[in-house]
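W.,

You were right to be curious about this one. When I first looked at the sequence I had no strong expectations either way, so I just let the prediction run and decided to look at it fresh. Below is the sequence, 960 residues in total, followed by the output.
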Amino acid sequence: MRRRIGTTGRHPTRARRARRSAVGTAAAVLALAASLLTPVPQALAAPEPAPPAARAAADGDLCAGQCSDVLPPGQNGNATLAEILAHRVFGTRPGHSSDQLARYDSLVGGYGGITDAKVNDFFNDASFGVPADQVESVASPRPDVTITRDKKTGVPHIKGTTRYGTEFGAGYAAGQDRLWMMDLFRNIGRGSLTPFAGGALANQGLEQQFWPQAPYTEADYQAQVDRIRTTEGPRGEQAMADAQAYVDGINAYRVQSKNGRYFPGEYVLTGHVDSITNAGEIKPFTLTDLIAIASVVGGQFGGGGGGEVQAALSLLAAQEKYGLAEGTRIWETWRQREDSEAQLTVHDGTSFPYAQKPANPRGTALPDPGSVVPEQLVHDRTGSALTRGPRAAAKDPVRAPKALRPAQGMFDDGVLPAGSLDARKGMSNALLVSGAHTASGSPVAVFGPQTGYFAPQLMMLQELQGPGISARGVAFAGVGMYVQMGRGKDYAWSATSALQDITDVYAVELCAPGGGTPGKDADHYLFRGTCTPMEKLERRNAWRPSVADSTAAGSYRMQVWRTKYGLVTHRATVGGKPVAYTSLRTTYRHEADSIIGFQLLNDPSYVTDARSFQRAAAEIGYAFNWFYADSRTAAYFNSGDNPVRAPDVDPALPVTADRANEWRDFDPTANTAAYTPFAEHPQSVGQDYYVSWNNKQAKDFGAAAFGFGSVHRGDLLDDRVARLVATGGVTRASLTRAMAEAAVTDLRGEQLLPVLLAVLRSQPVTDPQLNAVVQQLDAWRVAGAQRKESAPGSRSYPHADAIRVLDAWWPRLVQGVFEPGLGTPLYRALTANLAVDESPGATHGPTGAHGGSAFQYGWWGYVDKDLRRVLGRPVSSPLGAQYCGNGALSACRDALLTTLKQAAALTPAQVYPGDASCAAGDQWCADAIVHRPMGGITHPTVHWQNRPTYQQVVEFPAHR
């Protein structure tokens, strides 16, 4: 029967040929695999185990088995050529490449029954060390370090007798687990991805996204290294010594794996190494490569602000719609810098004033209407880099050896799909409860970074034990000298992206060096009264097709103009005068400075309590929310190089570039300034509980972007944790359950359906079909508004029709409610500031499809405030005007019913149109998480969860 189904409709001779071809390909793969199987250097024999008590005393582990973590899909992110080909033909995967994925996925169906004893059914045991009966291998790349890997996960436990050996081991293990990925990211940071991995459109997009954020010369990179080494005292010298040892370890593995022919197979498939002769090169890593990687990581997760030009455009549209004064007033209500209904991490009322609107702003530089033009980045396109014509994005497959054909074209769509590393995606969450409200009397924490889903993962797990270092957790591959989030001997810490405003936009007046009137494309500008040339930074890239990427040969030149006020992003006129808008962030030229803070977090002699933890986190210049738990205290600190701005400068809008409007103590050569002192950063010790899902930090801490209003995805956590705290007796299991339930809950269904239904039911719904739809929506709401399988493996939702209707309705209802009152120009300008929707199945927005993270960006609070006003309910910090039905309940109800009817008429295939991973109409699959491969290994699709990628569950029973 299977044979008949498999060949139905096919010519018998062609079917036989196809089978012979498949067999021939498999045979070729096996033959090549056999030729490539060089034995990996023999691991050392496992040492005799120490008794558990002795092991705990030696490692100083005081968590007593109550620390857990998980990082899907698996630890091993490298695959040899033979392993890649075997995966493509037979579906096999290298060991430890996917063995944490099922545990991570199973929490969706299992969280309801989780107990403290069952936590590690869904997580790894994050204790220090490896029990003797769980040792899989022990390697010693140098006499002063051993790398022990456990059988269950293959995580490297690195123990050094010297500082150099410890860091060397960290680099060596990073090479073992992430060599190809680290190479990708150093090339992304340097803007050289297309020559390295191929000219696919997505590769072009990645380098065009990241290089303009940090377009450094080699001298710029080296200057960062030198600055840390020479200006940060002994800690800086140690940091650079650690970084050099880490690089040495990477390079040692790079050389050994190349010579031994067990290096990642992607190097062959992209044309860097010959599969037969082994000729070719894997380029050595350098300290400056680490700066390039850090610029990508920091730009992706640790920035904030910088959207002033788009904000100015929506302000102009509001002023055009309502008039200057009224338009400004109404725009401010949409901007929501200080919304009194916003969910806060520090919720005890403590005020931390920062980035607020001044009473009498000066220096604001709004563009003349219609004058703004984005700065051109790409020039001199040739071949497949052309954007139109027959050669645009053309493919030119190479003639690949038969054995390599299963991998042919695997990077034709790029090493990552377009949009995978959007700067607004992901972000992370944290739930912590202080000991006064837990069953044990010790704080409980469930927290981790939400960094998307990649294969291999951007981060890697490791344990580091050596002189001055004792930690287990994750680090971004390529900058893993220290654990960046994880646990120490008796404390654990994690972070969420904070997004506060550390980036300002200046309007620099253009000038002509010989006098006269400059054009908008002028390359000189006024700096402190002097006509000064801009610095032109360029990157010329050319590529040719390879087995992995069939994109035809092409080239282009990227160009960025740098000024002392930052990088040019737009051109415009202000008051008729030509200007360049520049973006200046405090961490520019300082991406690596945060290494000092991470060094301190790994040092058990420095972090001894909550206050010392806060001081360590304060050394990190990126904008992050940091959370801490030990056996006594839970704590929070917001890090970031927050500039001290000139009085009366509005940080939400572009400002005229002159000395009076510069950051205080601004040094343009080093890009340094005065930063807000430690005490002015949002912080807390011992609050009853903390939650963060990239929400607003504290009272008076000005939001750097739109959308921090009355409804935020942080409410999904805050409501649940507040209920747990009110009841008391919180455990690791109950806090994990709260997180997991929030992770499968639709924010709109839980927080907004009640007010939507109240409007709809303000009168009887007389249309029988619409009334049935309303009842479906309400039944789903009552059931918890979850997007969760009816049973594990069913791949369908119990309330599928209600979910489909809401997915279709939300963008239509937002437009139907707001566009008539705002007018199309203002509505479109505001949607450019803040996307309307970010549902799990959306193929638009910051995360794109299958990205896991959802409901971070949307018009949730705007709809909530407007509809509550229509219902006559109290609203604090309302919008400046009423929109739904112009404030009339009956007219608002009509608008909602009209858009609901439109949405209900759409079929599943129309709502979920399908893509490369899913068939049209497959609702579960449209939501599902797909690990985006950066190499030759793919992974199974798993259930949607809105949850940290790496996650810890911790409760320390004791302290040093």
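Here's what jumped out at me. Confidence is low (pLDDT under 50) at residues 1-23, 37-42, 44-58. And, maybe more interesting for your project: The chain has 26 helices and 30 strands.

Coffee later to discuss?

I.
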